[in-house]
Amino acid sequence: MAALIEDYALIGDLQTAALVGRDGSIDWLCLPRFDSPACFAALLGDEDNGHWRLAPAGAGTCTRRAYLQDSLVLQSVWETAGGTVKVTDFMPQRDRAPDLVRIVEGVSGRVEMLGVLRLRFDYGAIVPWVRRTDGHRVAVAGPDSAWLRSEPEVPTRGEGRSTRSEFTVGAGEKIAFVLTWHPSHEPRPALIDPHEALDHSLADWRAWAGRCRYRGPYREAVVRSLLTLKALTYAPTGGIVAAPTTSLPEEIGGVRNWDYRYCWLRDSTLTLNSLLALGYEDEARAWRDWLVRAVAGDPADLQTMYGLAGERRLPETELPWLAGYERSYPVRTGNGAVSQLQLDVYGEVVDSLHAAREGGLRAKPHAWNIQRCFLDFLREHWREPDAGLWEVRGPRRHFVHSKVMAWVAADRAVRTLEADATLDGDLDGWRTLREEIHREVCEKGYDAGRGAFVQSYGSTELDAATLLIPRTGFLPPDDPRVMATVDAVRRELTDDGFVRRYGDGLAHTAVDGISGTEGTFLACSFWLADALHLTGRPKEARALFERLLAVRNDVGLLAEEYAPGAGRQLGNFPQAFSHIGLVGTALLLDGAGPAH
Questions:
Q1: Where are the alpha helices (DSSP H) in 210-319?
Q2: What percent of the chain has a predicted confidence (pLDDT) above 70?
Q3: SS3 408
Q4: CA–CA distance from 428 to each of 359, 371, 382, 434 (Å)?
Q5: Which of 366, 494, 562, 563 has the fewest CB atoms nearer than 10 Å to its CB?
Q6: Terminal CA-to-CA distance of the chain, rounded, Å?
Q7: Are 209 and 520 in contact (CB under 8 A)?
Q8: Nearest to 587 by CA among 288, 209, 207, 223
């Protein structure tokens, strides 16, 4: 039986990441980048699609596990009849080649250990040749190679197209395994000292976490979320991936399985605000700079997402040899939503650059020209239907949230010009545009009979994205229409208090054009907590927030969604959007920064 999504923990080196199960098996790892083909893909298939298990022989899941304080170094402990052993897993920040380090340490007694390594390149499709060379087991197939060694050396053997190691560890003994990837045409990569690498990794992560300015009651959760966001950062460019995984399902056995190993523009404002509020100016600047590079070009070509370095071609493909997580098929790479018209992203980009300026980041050359071009584009196109925030694959609609974010673009541009008269821009024209959008949304996006802002013009369906209206400044929190909308969403879109994106069942399928349903959306649930706080219900907001904290797994991680009835997480994992929501809500509740 497949492990639950929340049974995994994350380790990474700021260029890629691996998922480690409670049973000591690494079931997902893409090398050398987040978006590279996986060499361990058991997460989306079975063991023969690639994994690396290191645990006591015959043991099941670990007795306990935790990250070593304020780091991304994972320690799993097994208590067995023969004694106690711990395995420390981490990926040191790389100079060039990515290394995966696993250190086995005896705590008491003597414990028989079993290691099983199955390398399968290209998402589990390719079985490499394995040979012994210079104290290593070397796996090679096409452009990929991986080198395995141990210190001290442990005997290994090939069996069943896997590399197996059986050894015994006693109290105080340590055995370190290092798996290193590099291009197969290059000579052997430089060796690292695994124990020195551990010390450096711990020091680096703890120093980074120590910069966090937040000192409120939710510090542990905030710091863990920040560490997760840092782990999802592609250090060479500053881009932040939405998740390190693809195709973890929104419905077990369903088809809502998407590739999230890319950088979404709509995450930008939320991320920038949180990073700036918490003292991470360097990371905020790197993300802002990635954003400016990615969106440069014709405003008509703006995409909702880009690759780690700003790549634009992300073709969606299915991998038929992978059965999918718990038979949730198809498994996809790439993302077809990249070609959709989503008007809200124009507002998010302009809002992000405005937030960066307000947060004290020195303006990037040409950033203002990009914003002016976006406003020119919106002036001509804001009345068009689009695919919206939720990237629906059904017919385009006049989504209310998209119109609100077009208003945000105009509003932030006006405010920027009002604050800096040296900048060029059409102040009167943008004020007029702002007023036109506001008037139309209030006329066509609010259903007086429903007593709420609806999902799209002419629809009676609700949408959790309307919870963002007060946070954007479109209307004040005490506006009766805002209050009524928050109450309507809470009444009709919640499942055991957690928020769905929009209607379920047939209504859901009719909107997005995809069969099946999904879990509650964790980011939307944080938005509800924000909205409750802003509309004068801080106790209810805090109660919901603390329920959301309880959904985190044992090492503090959140996926995209949660199924209250089954009590399990769903969707790609860990999810940046969920952790950004957590940080932003914590700041709002304690008055330590902007809502997001």
A1: 219-231, 268-277, 281-295
A2: 98
A3: helix
A4: 26, 16, 18, 10
A5: 366
A6: 38
A7: no
A8: 223
Residue 306 token pair: 């880009």
- What was the pLDDT predicted at 534? 97
pLDDT digit string, tens, across residues 166-201: 999 999 999 999 999 999 999 888 899 999 999 999
Which long-range CB contacts under 8 A does 435-443 form with residues at least 24 apart? 437/382, 437/403, 437/406, 437/407, 437/410, 438/407, 438/474, 440/383, 440/403, 441/400, 441/403, 441/404, 441/407, 441/474, 442/481
Q: Coil, strand, or helix at residue 52?
A: strand
Cβ contact 30:38 at 8 Å: yes
Sign of CA dihedral 486, 491, 496, 500: negative
CA distance 494 to 540: 14
Task: Please name which of 67, 23, 15 lies closest in space to residue 42, comparing C-alpha atoms.
Answer: 23
Burial class (CB in 10 A: 0-12, 13-18, 19+), 239: buried
Whole-angstrom Cα distance, residue 465 to residue 442?
15
Distances (CA, A) of 156 to 134, 167, 189, 588: 14, 10, 21, 54
Number of neighbours of residue 132 by Cβ within 10 angstroms: 10
Alpha-carbon span 596 to 586, nearest angstrom: 10
For 268-324, write each residue's pLDDT tens digit. Answer: 878 888 999 999 999 999 999 999 999 988 988 999 999 999 999 999 999 999 999
- The whole-angstrom separation of Cα 529 and Cα 420 is 35
Nearest CA-CA partner of 265 in 230, 302, 228: 302
Q: Give the DSSP letter string of 450-473.
A: TTEE-SBTT----BGGGGGHHHHT
